[in-house]
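Cross-posted from the bioinformatics board.
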Amino acid sequence: AQSVSQHNHHVILSEAASLELGCNYSYGGTVNLFWYVQYPGQHLQLLLKYFSGDPLVKGIKGFEAEFIKSKFSFNLRKPSVQWSDTAEYFCAPRGDSNYQLIWGAGTKLIIKP
Amino acid sequence: DVKVTQSSRYLVKRTGEKVFLECVQDMDHENMFWYRQDPGLGLRLIYFSYDVKMKEKGDIPEGYSVSREKKERFSLILESASTNQTSMYLCASRRRQTSTGELFFGEGSRLTVL
């Protein structure tokens, strides 16, 4: 069965700093990988996804993620964060059965203005 | 704009009470899901439904049941609420069973059981 690990539970950065949030998953067949974001008081929404092709995928609001098959990783990056990026970020690879997602524990990101 | 609406944002119930959480989506999606979200645990799947009148247990179905009589509506039922069911409950929907499909979430229902 697949599992997922998000390395940091809390991250605090200043505006304009670069961001990288780690996500490692266990291999379980076809790779489908997602990052979702939950802004304070809002619903979860899709940030970006990878299912084939170029391993560097771009999402909304300047975020990108790179799929590295040899490392079983799908790290989320942003070159320069803004205060409005304060949110909780979830990595979610596809599970082995019924096309379900396996959710990471989440990383709470706080950006200091 | 796509929308998943959960009937109650905040509920406070007493131990042993029956609790209904309702979710409605306006996107004609086949698949619907109920998750609970707890700090440090991410999202855990309670039940999901492929289509009307179809349901399957997720990872933590104990103490919960669901109902899907109409395509747009998916209800979560706690037959006898307990304090360990205090949590944030999230409903989601998706167009058909596909590994690449985006999940659309409601804003959540925060349940406190006293």
